[in-house]
Specification:
heterodimer, A: 349 residues, alpha/beta, D-Maltodextrin-Binding Protein, domain 2, 2 domains, five-stranded mixed sheet, 18% strand, B: 448 residues, mainly alpha, MetI-like fold, 3 domains, 21 helices
Chain lengths: 349, 448
């Protein structure tokens, strides 16, 4: 009997040691993200639960939206196949840890680039793919044309969000004496606004567009022109992995450059074969060796554009005037640089 | 004054008249609802209130509702005041099957039908090895179900252990229905048929060995068929809807009983280590809300485990929900254990039964039967609690419903999906409680 006991004890001790050593291996340096993605066979993209226009489920259970297309684009660049991506919807609190633990390869969930997130969360923010900002929506019959006219008004806002803080700041600096009505759930907040429990609704403008399109009669509501905060929605990847960061960064640059040089998902094949423009030929990989530095195949950008289209197409499909959000692009920061926006592709050389 | 010391005389009053049952409905209403002014006011206000609530609800849900539309905007153009059931109908498959691929959803239906069919022979009292049916459902069916739902090819995506158990499960299913058929036809069951052969082969244990033998033989054709079948693999991330809710709930419900029994016995144990460990688990888990246990399972469990051991979110959630349900069940069962009179323990001891036999044969059957109403209440609350897993991003029916309002075609559609889910949960929970009433009646809980 004693023999059995000592064998069991020894076995347990060995097992515990095994567990201890293997978990200490976790602390070791991670391999490069690109290698990890290739070994795994798919890209793991961190998104949020649901946000119309950016990431939402359709009735067949497929993800769609702007962030989704961005991730598909990166998958196309790495694998030449836009379907090799898995989406990981996480809660807000888990967004940072999911990247740090290596579970997710890139974060594309409409996260605003801020100093504290960039410096103290173990992330590197890359490119801004959508410039958003907080705005206000009111009923048309109030006859209000500017936030300045909202003196003493009640505003519906989600509690615990940066919108709430921005609202308080703005109200104080402009002496507007806005009264906030806070909600925990966006559905309840919207219903309250549509039932006239508050004069104005504040949120990021893309969100306001979504809420306006859900209104009983959208034409009764108007989004005021002021934008009171800076929300630069950007990709983020794990810190200090330039190889991987370059791939995500240049996938996006390729989408913007494609729009600038007139390459679309429809004409990309023709452009690849017939275009005489050296820039287009370099982007599509028929000339030069821009791919070697990235560690991708020569036609990586061709695959991206073939699969998801250029930036303009992605914008129009998901958030543009004919989509559910109906956000006009002209004259906003999201337009190309030659149209007065901030979308400026770096040089493909 | 003079009479004060005398005893009070008992004078029999005439008996009350029997209640009249030959009253008309109008007289009955009059005598019960309008017998005083206060009651009349109460009756009228309740009727008026009820009329307002019910008519408004019916107007919204039935009379003004839209059943056919392709977007929410269209619904609103047709009838702005009514419910837009068209959205729920168009998402119906999503609510039931989650993100499971549309052309593979028959596998879920098949799995569900097989799960019910597995239990169906229980209704036959004469069937051989009746006790094994439930045990096999708990121990074998999950492997078969996991194979069916996950898909894949034997030897490629499915490990040896899982593959073998899937084949054994299929073999047992065939054995079960062969025995059921034979029982219906009043023929001896399969093992009895092979009994002469078996007793010649094996000297001892011939009956269980024969059962094992027949089972293994039946598993072989199942294995031959299954190894040829190629099911399209479906990742766990794509599981969802009511399907996922039912998986989590069923798993938690079946596991909560053994976990609860072990913890309850452990808590009553005289061995200090066992006692304190059980106490610690029960009190720790019960002191924390389920949502915290879920978050802990998802974020902390991977830290404790070795790094090369990857757990998917579903198994983390199953772990958390089982522990949680088990801790509550332990207290239910402890209540039952305490209700058993000491005499029962002593009688068992006097018969020479040891601890485990006392518990298994004498105490637990009585304790569990006494606690049926409480256990059933726990089951119902487990079923409802599973909706919390939507918060950590599993696409159960609740999260699917919330996603409808963010779909571009049905943007802002919140109320109707939730109403639909409420009806569904009511049906599920009500049938569970009816079943428990039925079970109590059959086992005659209140036979004291």
């Amino acid at each position: 009997m004693n023999k059995v006991k000592s064998i069991v004890a020894a076995g347990t001790a060995i097992f515990v040691m095994q567990v201890a050593t293997s978990s200490s291996a976790m602390a070791q340096e991670r391999t490069s993200t690109l290698q990890q993605v290739k070994d795994r066979g798919y890209l793991s993209c961190v998104i949020g639960n649901s946000f119309p226009g950016f990431y939402s489920l359709d009735k067949d259970g497929e993800w769609q939206g702007m962030d989704i297309d961005m991730c598909r684009g990166v998958a196309a660049a790495v694998f030449g196949d836009a379907s090799k991506v898995k989406f990981m919807p996480v809660q807000w609190a888990q967004s940072f840890t999911s990247i740090k633990s290596g579970e997710g390869d890139m974060l594309s969930k409409g996260m605003t680039w801020t100093l504290s997130r960039d410096t103290s969360q173990g992330l590197d923010f890359l490119e801004t793919y959508f410039y958003d900002g907080q705005g206000f929506m009111v009923r048309k019959d109030l006859g209000v044309n500017s936030v300045k006219d909202l003196k003493g008004a009640t505003v519906c806002v989600l509690t615990g969000t940066s919108s709430e803080l921005n609202l308080a700041d703005y109200s104080r600096t402009h002496g507007l004496d806005l009264k906030t009505v806070v909600f925990d759930d966006s559905a309840v907040r919207n219903t309250a606004f549509f039932n006239e429990n508050c004069d104005a609704l504040t949120n990021d403008k893309s969100g306001l567009a979504a809420q306006r399109s859900a209104a009983p009669n959208p034409d009764d509501y108007v989004v005021l022109p002021e934008t009171i905060s800076k929300e630069a929605l950007s990709f983020a990847v794990t810190q200090n992995d330039s190889e991987w960061a370059n791939i995500v960064k240049w996938t996006f640059e390729a989408m913007v450059a494609a729009e600038e040089y007139g390459i679309t998902s429809a004409n990309v094949d023709e452009m690849k074969n017939n275009s005489a423009s050296p820039v287009v030929r370099r982007i599509l990989g028929t000339e030069g060796d821009l791919n070697t530095g990235l560690g991708l195949s020569p036609d990586w950008a061709y695959q991206v554009i073939k699969a998801v289209g250029n930036y303009g197409e992605i914008y129009a499909r998901n958030v543009g005037p004919n989509s559910v959000l109906g956000l006009e692009r002209k004259g906003t920061l999201n337009a190309l640089w030659q149209d007065g926006g901030l979308m400026y592709a770096k040089s493909f050389r | 004054m003079s009479n004060k010391t005398g005893l009070k005389q008992f004078v029999a009053k005439p008996a009350r008249l029997p209640t009249q049952n030959d009253q008309t409905i109008i007289r009955r209403i009059h005598s019960r609802c309008f017998n005083t002014i206060g009651n009349s006011i109460l009756t009228i206000s309740v009727v008026v209130l009820g009329w307002y609530v019910i008519s408004a609800a019916l107007d919204w849900a039935v009379f003004n509702a839209v059943w056919h539309a392709s977007t929410r905007r269209e619904c609103m153009n047709i009838s702005p005041e009514g419910a837009c059931w068209a959205g729920v109908i168009s998402w119906f498959n999503g609510l039931i099957y989650g993100r499971y691929p549309t052309d593979q959803q028959w596998r879920i239906n098949l799995g569900f039908i097989l799960a019910v069919m597995w239990l169906f022979p229980l209704s036959c009292q004469k069937i051989a090895y009746r006790n094994f049916i439930l045990l096999s459902w708990i121990g074998l069916y999950p492997f078969f179900g996991a194979y069916l739902f996950l898909g894949g090819t034997f030897g490629v995506d499915i490990g040896v252990f899982h593959g073998v158990l899937t084949c054994l499960a299929s073999g047992f299913f065939i054995l079960l229905y062969a025995n059921w058929l034979l029982a219906i036809l009043n023929k001896p069951h399969l093992c009895e048929i092979f009994q002469p052969l078996a007793s010649r082969l094996f000297n001892r244990w011939s009956q269980p060995l024969c059962l094992l033998f027949v089972w293994l033989v039946l598993s072989l054709p199942a294995a031959a068929v299954l190894s040829q079948v190629q099911l399209q693999p479906v990742a766990i991330e794509r599981w969802g809807g009511l399907f996922l809710t039912l998986i989590i709930a069923t798993f938690a419900i079946t596991m909560s009983i053994p976990i609860g029994v072990i913890l309850a016995l452990g808590r009553q144990s005289t061995l200090p280590v066992v006692h304190w460990l059980s106490l610690l688990v029960i009190e720790l888990v019960r002191a924390v809300p389920l949502i915290t246990v879920l978050f802990m399972a998802v974020t902390l469990l991977p830290i404790f485990l070795p790094s090369d051991m990857e757990l998917n979110k579903l198994s983390q959630v199953l772990f958390a929900v089982c522990i949680f349900a088990g801790a509550y069940m332990a207290e239910n069962i402890r209540g039952g254990l305490q209700a058993i009179p000491r005499g029962q323990y002593e009688a068992a001891q006097a018969l020479g039964l040891g601890y485990w036999f006392t518990m298994l044969l004498i105490v637990l059957p009585q304790a569990l039967r006494l606690m049926i109403p409480n256990i059933m209440t726990s089951f119902i609350s487990i079923l409802k609690d599973t909706t919390l897993v939507s918060i950590i991003g599993l696409f159960d029916i609740m999260l699917m419903a919330r996603n409808i309002s963010n779909d571009k075609d049905w943007i802002g559609l919140h109320t109707e999906p939730i109403a639909m889910i409420s009806i569904l949960f009511f049906v599920l929970c009500y049938s569970m409680s009816q079943y428990s009433l039925n079970l109590e009646k059959r086992l005659k809980v209140d036979r004291s």
